[in-house]
Each structure stands twice: as C-alpha cells, then as structure tokens.
Design brief:
- It is built from ten helices and six strands.
- It has 214 residues and is an alpha/beta fold.
- The chain has two domains: 136 residues, Response regulator (Rossmann fold); 60 residues, Arc Repressor Mutant, subunit A (Orthogonal Bundle).
- The protein has a six-stranded parallel β-sheet with strand order 2-1-3-4-5-6, with helices on both faces.
- Helix 2 packs parallel to helix 3 and helix 7 crosses helix 10.
- The chain is globular, with a radius of gyration of 17 Å.
- 38% of the residues are buried.
Length: 214
C-alpha cells in the first residue's frame, strides 16, 4: 500500500517540484498540497495522510504550530520538517513540537525517500547535517547561545513571530491563544533575554539567526 503524503509549503513551485520528483516512487502517493499550516490541518481531516512534509516558516500558521496540532489531534500522522532553515532553534522547535524527521531542502532524492520510509515505519530520521547542528548546539550550550535556550518552545515561537513583523493579535490567532497570553509570553521573553521592547526582540532574533532580512 502506498504511503499517502501531504506537502505543506508556501512556495507553489517547490510543491510542484516535489510532486514531480516523488511521482516516480511507486510506493508513494501525493494526496494533497497546502500553502500554510492551517490548510495542512484541514487537509489532514479530509485526506488521512500517513506523512506530512512540512515547511517551518509559513504564513497564517507556522509549521511548528501545525506540527504541534497534528501531534495532539492526529498522533498517527508523521511529520517531516523539510525546510531551508538550518538554525538550531528551528530544529529544536520542530522536534519538540513532534516532528519525526528534519531535512534541508537541498537534500538528495535518496535522503528524502529514506526519510519518508523511516518515519512511516515508526523511526526518526535526521540527516547528517541536522545531526551536526544538534551536536554544535550541545557544544555551544554554555556559550553565546545559552540565553536563548532558556526560552520554552512556545516562547521561541512567539519571539520568531514578533520578529517576522506580526502583531499581538495576529500571533494570538495563529497559535490559538488569547491576546493576553501572547502578552504574557512576550513579557517572559523580555525578562529572560534581558530586553526592553519588541524592537529589541526583533534585533535579537536577527542577530541570532532566528529570522532573515529577506
């Protein structure tokens, strides 16, 4: 029986490329595509996939929040992060949210197929590049990144969303919490990182590679 897959990525050209690439794999069936995390959740309800290839940074709902919702409501569905983000904070956030695998978008065809088969069979899959990222995090945990690792996965996600220019209301809508709760997370972030304002949070996120200037 073919492994049913949903591709969640906000770049249509990339999704189409994956569909074409995986169409040659006889034991894999692409059953749906989604341009954001919210759409991915809606498609899971209708299409019952086995695996979701999930980008991390997407509009409306991020891959981190979507993965957290999948783990909560559809634990049988396996998520593989397929992204350009190599920063250890993204890796940590996705794995803590429940992703079973993590790959960079420049991975090979064989690596992608191996990841899909491994995760579908109940195993976890991390590429060698990701393993190096996690090892580096371990080696550097007491150095200049130590203050960031003090944030919870949720606080890290809120920090990134603020740094991406989203308002408190937009963040509340995206992660399904109240505006007051977002404010509480913001305050904890400021206190833990010894910052004074949202502008400081944005600068901090850029300086530490949590968001890009693109």
């Amino acid at each position: 029986m073919a492994i049913k897959i949903i591709i969640a990525d906000d770049h249509k050209l990339f999704r189409e490329g994956l569909v074409n690439l995986l169409s040659d794999a006889g034991d894999i069936e692409i059953v749906g595509e989604a341009e954001n995390g919210k759409m991915a959740l809606e498609q899971i309800e209708k299409l019952n996939p086995n695996v979701v290839l999930m980008d991390v940074s997407m509009p409306v709902m991020s891959g981190v929040e979507a993965t957290r919702n999948i783990l909560k409501n559809h634990p049988e569905v396996k998520v593989i992060a397929l992204t350009m983000h190599s920063d250890q904070h993204y890796v940590k956030a996705m794995l803590e949210a429940g992703a079973r695998g993590y790959l960079f978008k420049n991975c090979t065809y064989d690596q992608l197929i191996d990841a899909i088969n491994s995760v579908h069979s109940g195993k976890k899959y991390l590429s060698n590049d990701i393993t190096e990222v996690l090892i580096q995090e371990y080696l550097n945990k007491d150095e200049n990144k130590a203050e960031t690792t003090g944030l919870t996965a949720r606080e890290l996600e809120v920090l990134i969303l603020f740094a991406e220019g989203k308002s408190t209301k937009e963040i509340a809508d995206e992660i399904f919490v109240s505006i007051k709760t977002v404010g509480t997370h913001r305050q904890h972030i400021l206190e833990k990182l010894n910052l004074n304002s949202t502008a400081d949070m944005v600068k901090y996120a850029i300086r530490n590679g949590l968001v890009s200037l693109e």
